[in-house]
């Protein structure tokens, strides 16, 4: 498991609300994205198969996204609260509620680009 300061891992990119809105409108999936949102709901963990921490964020554009963060491959964000801001780098999958972000972790096989979540200046990967 890897976690640390954001500067140890990545350079931040510009916000991508427009891209996420286009992906939602066009029904596209399997797209690597970066974004920032506010936590509006914390859901129970998904314990079927690989375990995932789940929460819903809202973008500045009011689009909502379900974040499904693999806690078998990355550290759990234990101090996550409603109204917290998070930044993410992961894969967007379309659904009719705004979309899902997953692959917010490193790939132990090295075949996929590493994703991450930034919360309170700490990166979870």
Fraction of residues in β-strands: 35-45%
Helix run count: 1
The biggest beta sheet is recorded as: 5 strands, mixed, barrel
Q: How many beta-strand segments? A: 8
What is the spatial order of strands in the main beta sheet?
2-3-4-6-5
What distance lies between the first and last C-alpha atoms, to the nearest angstrom? 7 Å
Return Rg in Å: 13 Å
* Shape call: globular
Secondary structure category: mainly beta
| Secondary-structure element series | EHEEEEEEE
Helix residue percentage: under 10%
Nearest-integer average pLDDT: 88
Low-confidence segments, given as residue ranges, are: 5-12
List its traits.
single chain, 125 residues, mainly beta, five-stranded mixed beta barrel, 1 helix, 8% helix
Produce a short descriptive summary.
This protein is globular. The protein is mainly beta.
